[in-house]
Design goal:
mainly alpha; 2 helices; 2 strands; rod-shaped
Length: about 180
């Protein structure tokens, strides 16, 4: 029986070892289960984080799309403003050109008027000189006929002279043709 007892004892030792191994395996399984629970929790957190990240990415994409639309609208508005500004510059240039042309035309008219005024002044001077010479000739001529002599002297006395410059004026003149003084 010794051999049987040995055999039983060995079997008991084997069973004890197996029990010990099973206990260790149970402990390992418990650790594995605890680790699995921990990983499930972590995976849950990760899934929540991933979902939050997806939501955030979706929101960011919406925001980017909205910003692109705003930028596009601003770009379109700026292009419209640029077109308006270019039109205003063109219109301003046209107005300036028209004003310049009108000014040049007025200057030409003024030059013509100044030239005509100078011509008229020269004619007036010639007429004055001729009138003065005529008056001198008329007063210097001795009259053969008393009637004409008296008539010439009377005509000369009746003519008006300018109190300012002394120029002889015609009968109907209200202003001196030389200096413009009222007669």
């Amino acid at each position: 029986m010794t051999s049987e007892e040995d055999y039983v004892e060995r079997l008991e030792k084997i069973i004890d070892r197996q029990d010990s191994l099973l206990t260790q395996l149970d402990a390992k399984f418990n650790q594995q289960d605890a680790l699995n629970e921990y990983l499930v929790k972590k995976n849950g957190y990760l899934e929540e984080d991933i979902q939050k990240h997806r939501d955030l990415t979706r929101d960011m994409n919406k925001t980017v799309t909205q910003q692109r639309k705003v930028v596009e609208n601003l770009k379109n508005e700026l292009e419209e403003q640029l077109k308006i500004q270019q039109k205003l510059h063109k219109d301003y240039g046209d107005v300036i050109k028209q004003l310049t042309d009108d000014l040049e035309e007025e200057q030409e008219k003024n030059e013509k008027l100044s030239k005509r005024q100078s011509e008229l002044k020269a004619e007036i001077e010639k007429l004055k000189k001729a009138q003065t010479a005529q008056a001198k000739i008329t007063t210097d001529q001795p009259s053969n006929n008393t009637y004409y002599g008296t008539l010439n002297q009377k005509t000369i006395k009746d003519k008006k002279t300018c109190p300012e410059c002394g120029t002889t004026a015609n009968d109907g003149d209200l202003f001196c043709q030389s200096c413009g003084t009222k007669l």
